Amino acid sequence: MKKNPIRQLEITATDDGYCLRFYAMASPCEVLVASKDNQLALTLGELIADEVWRIEDKYSRYQATSVCTAINNSGGQALAIDQETYLLLNFADTCYQLSDGVFDITSGVLRQVWQFDGSDNIPRGIDVQKSLENIGWHKVVFDEHQIIMPNHMEIDFGGIGKEYAVDRAMIIANEFTQLPLLVNLGGDLAANKPRKNNVPWQVGIEHPGFIERKPMVVSLLKGALATSGDAKRFLFKDNVRYSHILNAKTGWPVVQAPRSITVVAPQCIQAGILATLALMQGPQAEGFLTEQEIKFWAIR
Amino acid sequence: MKTFQIKKNYFNAGLPSQIIKCSLLSAAIFLASGCSSLGVQPWERDLLAKEEMALTSSPIDSALDDHIYFSKEASSGGKGFGGGGCGCN
Amino acid sequence: MQLTHKKAPINIKAALTIATSALLGTLPVIANAADDTMTPAKAQQESSWDFESAFLYYSESDRVSAAEAVISAQKTLENEAVLNLKLTIDSLTGASATGAAAQPNVQTFTRPSGKGSYQTQAGKTPLDDTFKDTRVQLNAQWTQPLAEKYTGSAGVHISKEYDYLSLGVNGNLAYDFNNKNSTFSVGLSYFQDTFEPEGGIPLAFASMPLAYDNDDDEYSIDEGGEDETVNSAGKTAFNATRRTDSDNKTTADIMFGFTQVINRRMITQFNYSYSKVDGYLNDPFKMLSLVNSEGIAQDYLYENRPNSRVKQSVFAQTKYHFEQNVIDISYRYMWDDWAIDSHTIDSRLRIPLSGQSYIEPHIRFYQQSAADFYQPFLAQSNAIPGFASADYRIGEMSAYTLGVKYGMKLSDGNDLSFRLEYYRQDPKNSGYQAPGALAEVELYESVEAIIAQVSYSF
Question: B73 FRET partner, CA 20 to 30 A, in A161, A257, C43, C130?
């Protein structure tokens, strides 16, 4: 995961167009385009893959040269940021406010105490408490031009980066063509219009870890889908399943959350946040989405 | 109005129509009771969602046809209301 | 956890929508309800009006022709309510069968207004060629979800022609269950119609009066002369055959429906309808020939039908999506207390020609038995029955329609379609012996019609 696989684009023909595959953000990615024009499909694929790789390079915490790494290593000093970074931080801020602090992009340091490897390795309360000292978005100061990140704190765009990349890819693609297309970055995806007149895209949603389950197939005319939850990442002790969704305020996993939630929304980043916010409701996850009249599928 | 019945030829109409009525009704009841095992999941509605799979896929065509047949035949409605609406009958 | 009770849930969605558009530099798209992106109709929910328009031309050989134009506008509102408004205008001209029987000699008939007469050639089915009418119809229908799983709909109807006014209301309630795979519905409709035919409403079995004024011009030339007295006496005689100027009819319908999704490719529907019509059910322009034992018409008597009718019908429809094609088959069985029963089979097969166009053949079969008071003529030797009508439309008949429709999606996304159909009615003798001259003429003349239609939705 920390080592970049070769950045290359594969093209294959489909029934009514082309499929372009590449690898980014630790996920297999694909672009489906309903056009018989090989050259056009390839150009489109390159544009999209370049945009996704650009975002990966800029915001991955695993890349030494990324903006994310620079912020995390700023040692409490003000660091100049660009407009795009500001907008992302602003969005993260909204999510923090909306969730009353449960969703927090500084919560990544909890990974040091929580290792979701399927074991019964539950951390001690005191260690969790210690980590919480370095968490808290409210301690971060930022404006349009700079960010001041307190020492020992870290941010992580993992919760929104991939969905953001889907939306950005779609914007780039729509500037280039009006052809129907679907961008799928490891299960977070968006389509600009139906594949053909009133013919929806058929999308298989993989739920990693649910080996016994067949991939769920969803028809999507347009809009976006994002999935939150990952069955492989959990802890199990004394008959309690600890999901990898951590409450940034308590430092402890959300209990009785669905294993996975897939949400439909006009934009992928909205779908992603809604799915994550829903998981954080634990047993009320489904009720939360139903109440908001949001289309979703949950697996418990 | 049967008192004024002055013709002959439909003595055989009663039985088949009874059979049709019964079988259609029982088909409906059977379907109503067995329907919970029928149907599709929301994501399997790709075909049903198409315009041409709507039960009335061309409402205007249907309305125009209803109007023609209402004014030319003794039957009307069935699919929708067959009520009045014009002096054409 | 805190989410639900600290903030109103709806704010989260709205706030996220705004935050997303700020982030992406896009216009805010409301992350709307459940099926937003799942069905084509709802995917395009931005509330603009959708229009459908059609022009239809119907023409019978030697008889009636009609032109009908429809424009329908539909708008989906934010709360998923749907408003549909429809305007229909049609115009009818030409000749319509009067019910009188063909004869071996020329026949003269008084026009329904009493002013003037027309002749029917020997051996021809008498047709009244004065039919000319324009009708304007307005419909408004409001449909909206009432509660989870319940959808309600209500509508009004108004139709006005020169001599006819129809007012109607309807309501419908549908209940979805079994994951929206099954739907029960119940609907009610009520129509109040007023008929005010030119020349008034004739008395049942009154003899056709003589025309009292052949021509307005003639009348003015012979002003003050003998003709005026003749005319005024004629008018009095004509009026003596009239019962009233106008009369009413009400129609009350109730319908129960059940729709079931069978599988990914198949959907079915079953309806039961009960319809009660009360009031003036005659056609004031329809007559019966009163014939002697040689089959020669001695008089023409206005028809008389019962003043109530109860119709019931069962209807079943199924649609099946093959790999490419879609077949639509329906069957209707209707019966009433006039002893009419009918079978209708209608089927269409939609065949896509490319992604953008399709062709759709259509076949319809129809067969009805006669009303118990239907008779093609009255015989002098028999007593006048309580009810009688020679209107072939309530006699025994079979009919079929053959048609084809071609539709295409235009480059701007609008739909254009053309429809051409052939409709043929074959009235049948349901067992009447035609005496003398009537055996030599065609009492059950077939009617052929062409239906042509252009539709455009935008």
Answer: C130
